[in-house]
Write a structure and sequence with these properties.
The chain is built from five helices and eight strands. The protein is α+β, with helices and mostly antiparallel strands. The chain folds into three domains: 59 residues, no CATH class; 51 residues, no CATH class; 40 residues. The strands form four sheets. The chain has a two-stranded antiparallel sheet. It has a two-stranded antiparallel sheet with strand order 2-3. β2 and β3 form a beta hairpin. α2 runs antiparallel to α3. The two termini are 60 Å apart.
Length: 185
């Protein structure tokens, strides 16, 4: 069964892990097992007899794992928002004009060959014409320039309303409340 599940013993042979309550004899009835992928990360596996709790027959087992988290690098991604679409269209048109598409497609392999050529032209144009940027770890994917503009408008109305705080009938309060409730809905 150990071979079927690729399990390995962690504690060395003849390490006592149980102290019989009646006799006080130490025994080794349990096995501490781990898979080979987990075993690579185990720095130490040992018992601590001096920490044996009262009214318990088991000896504590301490397992120390090497757990250094890897650093994940985010690859640069195309920034479609800041693309010069005229330049993109010009480059793509040039690449598409060089593709031989004058003849009819006669079989399935010809279809897939042309599909591959078209896909390659599009991806090459994306690689060359669209600027790349490394996303910040703090980037909110849902945030946009329009939301930033709206946020500035609401903040401006809020400052105006605050400046008129002594005048409860001032239209600035209504305008601010209206924008604030519009944003919240």
């Amino acid at each position: 069964m150990m071979a079927n599940y690729d399990l390995h013993m962690l504690l060395p042979k003849n390490i006592p892990i149980l102290c019989a309550m009646a006799t006080g004899n130490f025994t080794c009835p349990d096995n501490i097992l781990a898979s080979s992928s987990l075993r690579e990360h185990i720095l130490e596996c040992k018992t601590i007899p001096e920490e044996h709790p009262p009214q318990s027959d088991h000896i504590p087992i301490i397992t120390t794992l090497e757990m250094s988290p890897g650093r994940q690098e985010e690859a640069p991604k195309p920034n479609f928002k800041s693309t010069n679409w005229a330049k993109f269209q010009k480059e793509l048109t040039k690449k598409l004009d060089s593709i031989d598409a004058q003849h009819d497609i006669l079989n399935e392999s010809e279809f897939y060959r042309r599909l591959n050529t078209l896909t390659l032209a599009i991806t090459d144009t994306i690689e060359s014409a669209i600027p790349k940027n490394r996303p910040s770890p703090f980037t909110k994917q849902w945030w946009s320039k329009e939301l930033s503009q709206k946020q500035m408008e609401v903040q401006k109305l809020g400052r105006s309303s605050y400046a008129q705080r002594g005048k409860p009938d001032e239209p600035a309060h209504r305008a601010y409340k209206q924008q604030e409730t519009h944003i919240g809905s």
